[in-house]
Amino acid sequence: MKLFYLLLAILAVIIEPIQAIQYLVTNNATGTPGGTRFENEIGIPYSEQTLQLATEFILQTFRQDGNYNPPHYDQITTIVYSFTFSPARHVFDTIYLSSDYIENYSGDVRIEVIGILYHETSHVWQWTGNSDSTPQGLIEGIADYIRLKAGWAPMHWAKRGSGSRWDDGYEITAYFLEYCNGLRDGIVAEINSLMEYMNYSDDFFVQLLGKSVDDLWNDYKSQYGN
After folding, report:
1. Distance from C-alpha of 122 to C-alpha of 148, rounded to nearest angstrom
2. Hey, where are the domains in the chain?
3. Was domain 20-125 assigned CATH 1.10.390.10?
4. Which N-terminal residues, if any, form the signal peptide (predicted)?
C-alpha cells in the first residue's frame, strides 16, 4: 500500500506541471489581412491546443535524461500582432506571432504556424546557461531540433549536411544535433539540463560524446559528402 501511494506521489510530480498550465491565444490583428487569415485558417482554439501539445512534447523530450527541472510557468500566452522583423519571437512565457508573416506566407499556413509554435514554445522551456556565453545558434538549433523531432520541419529548410559551422543555428544546428543524438540518444536533453546550472561549454560534447564539437561537425559533414 505504501508503494501505491509513493507511485501516486511520483505521478503527481510528473503530471501536475503540465495539467496546471493554462494556454491563452489573443489575436490583436483582427481586421488586418494577416489577422483575418489567422482567424480563418488557424484560429484561437487550434492554436491553444497546439501550445498544449507542444509543451507536453517538449517536456517529454527534455526529461529524457531524468535531470530536467522545467522553468515554472502557470500560463503560456501567444499574441498575434503586426511586426515584420521575424515570423515570431518570445519573451519568457509569451510568444509573439507576426500577422504580417501569416498574411504573406505562401503555402499551408496552419502547418507553418504549428512548426513555429513548437519552436517558440521550446524557447519557453529550454535552459540557456548564461545566454551571453551560449552560442545563439545552439539556442535556436535546439528549438528547431524539437520542431524537427516533432515532425513539423518545413519543406523550405536547408538540406541535411548544409552549413559552414555547427552553430550556424536553426535547421543547420538542428540537423547536427539530430546526428549527435544518433550517437547518444537523449544528448539534447542532457545538454539542456547541464545549462540549468552551468554556463555552456564546448566541453559538453567531449564529456558526452568523447569528441570535440568541431570533430563531430566534421564527421557529420563527411556523412553527407561535404
Report:
1. 12
2. 20-125, 129-226
3. yes
4. 1-20
DSSP sequence for the chain: -HHHHHHHHHHHHHHHHHHT-EEEEEETTTTSHHHHHHHHHT-HHHHHHHHHHHHHHHHHHHGGGS-------SEEEEEEE---S-SEEEETTEEEEEHHHHHH--S-HHHHHHHHHHHHHHHHH---SSTTTS-HHHHHHHHHHHHHHTT---TTSPPTT--SSTTS-HHHHHHHHHHHHHHSTTHHHHHHHHHHHS---THHHHHHHSS-HHHHHHHHHHHTT-
User: Would you say residue 84 has pLDDT above 50?
Assistant: yes
Instruction: Give pLDDT tens digits for 174-223.
Output: 999 999 999 999 999 999 999 998 999 999 999 999 999 999 999 999 99
Cell numbers that stand for 171 in this block:
535547421
Mean pLDDT of 75-79: 97
CB count, 10 Å around CB of 171? 24
pLDDT tens-place string over residues 196-209: 989 999 999 999 99
Structure pTM? 0.89
CA 194, 196, 197, 201 dihedral sign is positive
